[in-house]
TrEMBL record:
InterPro entries hit by this protein: P-loop_NTPase
Highest taxon of source: Eukaryota
Protein name, entry field: Uncharacterized protein
Lineage: Eukaryota, Metazoa, Spiralia, Lophotrochozoa, Mollusca
């Protein structure tokens, strides 16, 4: 058992001080606001007079890939290719099983939006 700043009884019953856990500085990469990019794209489509239900519009690449490094640009291209331009009319209940996978997708994608 490792508790920072406390003592723990060792195998011989004697109290041993616990070494503090070192704190590492984390460096984060570029932060990209996907929600604002999607909102901007939706707003542009509405200004151009596209059908709001998306039946006749062609989705534009996310943000034009400007300001991305090569890894983020590649990810944005993959996401843009995989976006459906029409509603396939599939409900969560239509997918049998995979409850854990559905829960993770909802937490990562559906709930933040």
């Amino acid at each position: 058992l490792c508790l920072q700043g406390h003592t723990v009884n060792g195998s011989n019953g004697a109290a041993e001080p616990v070494m503090p856990i070192p704190k590492f500085k984390q460096k984060f990469g570029q932060i990209i606001d996907i929600r604002s990019m999607i909102n901007e794209s939706t707003k542009l489509n509405a200004e151009e007079g596209c059908d709001p239900n998306g039946a006749d519009r062609v989705l534009k690449p996310l943000g034009g890939y400007l300001g991305y490094n090569s890894e983020w640009r590649e990810l944005a291209q993959v996401i843009s290719r995989d976006i459906y331009s029409q509603n396939p009319n599939v409900k969560w209940d239509d997918i049998i099983g995979l409850d854990e996978a559905k829960r993770l997708v909802k937490e990562a994608v559906v709930y933040p939006i």
